[in-house]
Amino acid sequence: MQQSVEALVRLLESYRGRDKVIRTVCYGSQLVGGVLSRTADAEVSSHRLGKSLLLFSAQLSHCRTVLRLFDDLSMLSYSHSYGMGAREEDAGVRWISVLTNVADQLYYPCEHIAWAADAELIKVKSDKWWLFSTVLWGTSLLLGILRSLRVLLLLKKKLKRDRGGSSRSQLRRQMRGEVLSVLSSVADLSNAVHWMPPGFLWAGRFPNWLVGLMGTVSSVIGLIQMNAGDSYQTDGT
């Protein structure tokens, strides 16, 4: 119990860890709130609780949007350090990663403008800026899926050639990580399509509970990957 509490505290003390926890609670609240409030014949208390959870989820989502106001420089630093991906062995992975970084970098200012417009800090309509940010997010997710599939293909080829026990174990671990990344991105991409203008695929057709479910799946995978990455670094030191 003590170790679990200490692990949670360490997670919340880091910006990245806190954001993942907030994201998980946000989508989890939307999932439960959507389930409790979706039926007309639900009990009054359950319906009220469902609405409260949906409001709570909306506030956490707004909280994450405000916190992302300060992410531009860290993203710019990462994009600069990655550059044109000269360290990547595969050209496909390199160019997909570069395009992903461009989409991610453009996403932040678009979202900032949309947020500022909603907050009435600037006199522009926020709708098109929210659309731009959603398109960029979806593009980044789609590129991320393609990158993971390409990496999986390369890892599979390495696994066939490799005969060493420890290296094969590491390759399998990397493959599991990429599979989780694909599942997480697909879940997020389904929500990104839902938030597109009506008429585009299944845009606007997801009920609250399904949006919450997709987001919760993605968020839990993110926590698992973060924990696995920390454990891997600990084992390696």
From TrEMBL:
KW Transmembrane (keyword) present: yes
Record's signal peptide: none
Keywords carried by this UniProt record: Membrane, Peroxisome, Transmembrane, Transmembrane helix
GO annotation, cellular component aspect: peroxisomal membrane
GO BP annotations listed: peroxisome fission
Membrane-spanning intervals of the chain: 129-155, 206-224
Name the UniProt record assigns to this protein: Peroxisomal membrane protein 11C
Organism (species): Dicentrarchus labrax
Originating gene: pex11g
